[in-house]
Amino acid sequence: MSDKKNSTPLTPLVGMTLDELQEVALALELPKFTAKQLAQWIYVKRVSTFEEMLNISKAGRERLAAKYCVGLYPPKDKVVSQDGTVKYLFDAGDNMAVETVYIPEDDRATLCISSQRGCRMNCYFCMTGRQGYHGNLTAHQIINQVLSVPQSEQLTNVVFMGMGEPLDNIEEVLKVIDILTQSWGLAWSPKRVTVSTVGKLPELKVLAENTSVHIAVSVHNAHPEERDSLMPIERVCHIKDVMELLGQYDFAHQRRLSVEYIMWQWFNDDIRHAELLRELLPNEHVRVNLIRYHMIPEVAKLRTSSDERMTYFRDYLNAHGVTCTIRRSRGEDIMAACGMLAGKVKQPKAKAEKKA
């Protein structure tokens, strides 16, 4: 990870915004434009050492290397699903790890990235939430997932749907969104980025007002008391208030607002719940994604809805003016599907290689 041996830890430049890179340059008495050069080398050309940055003077590179490193580091392990999904394990410090999931499709290549070690939202059905909260990831640790997977150059989309609640780490997540979308960074369209949230206020307002990324809200049950029984966030951030807030923003054009809805047998999959969900939506521009429940070892009593039940639920919503689809599950055989990430599930290397 370091570009040169040093007795004191070197600060990584990966994860810094252009303003922060300018502060680095000025502190080292380098020209201010060095910041744009650094951003180009790090985020566009993806170099891993200062020696490769040929348009920065040798003296400048030496000053940088004395205090900083580029900071790219590869995943420490991976396991491959039968459907082509790949789950990567990244070091997250303090003997902990986080998981990142690459999902290839015919016309898309999506990376599902983590923003926290564990999660403090404590959703009953989520493996990440059940392990508790162990700290926020830095912008460095988050964007490194995007830059360091082998398929980095082929990515078409990034979703903050991995481990953690992104809005519980809003400052670092906003920095990463800047790196992904600003002209000095990866220069992606914001429409290639989706942030998934359980509906944490007031951070959701900050996200909606300061970015143009897609937003996905984990609803899972539109009945407040029933939602509360699985998602403690409902006690402090009511889903009705969340949807009313989002109804104030323009999702009628390219920006998308979607609702994530895991379906459980006999809990939230009947017509009464479909009607409650329809009434919850602020307008006709919201899309609903129905998700099959992926069983985790700690939760035995929940069962996924049948295909017939999910189809009926979808068709009912579509017939009543709501755009609704059933999301195809990916990576369930390697514990990479929705709600299954834990950051501590280590596949034996031989097993991973066999699946690959």
The dominant shape is elongated
By helix and strand content, what is the structural category?
A: alpha/beta
Question: Main sheet?
Answer: 10 strands, mixed
CATH topology annotation of the largest domain: TIM Barrel
Q: Quick one: how many beta strands?
A: 14
Share of helix, binned:
25-40%
Helix and strand pattern: EHHHEEEEEEHEHEHEHEHHEHEHEH
Main-sheet strand order equals 3-4-5-6-9-10-11-12-13-14
CATH architectural designation of the largest domain: Alpha-Beta Barrel
Query: How many domains make up the 3D coordinates?
Result: 2
Mean pLDDT: 92
Distance between the first and last residues' Cα: 26 Å
Kindly provide the name of the CATH class of the largest domain: Alpha Beta
- Count of helix runs: 12
CATH superfamily placement of the largest domain: Aldolase class I
Fraction in beta strands: 15-25%
Which stretches of 5+ consecutive residues score pLDDT under 50? 345-356
The value of Rg in angstroms is: 21 Å
Textual characterization of the structure:
- The chain starts with 10 loop residues before the first strand and ends with a helix.
- By secondary structure, it is an alpha/beta fold.
- The strands form 3 sheets. It has a 10-stranded mixed beta sheet with strand order 3-4-5-6-9-10-11-12-13-14.
- α1 (18-27) crosses α2 (34-44).
- β4 and β5 (96-104) form a beta hairpin.
- It is 31% helix and 19% strand.
- The longest helix is centred in the C-terminal third of the chain and has 13 residues, at 307-319.
- The chain contains 12 helices and 14 strands.
Primary descriptors:
2 domains, two-stranded parallel ribbon, 356 residues, TIM Barrel, alpha/beta
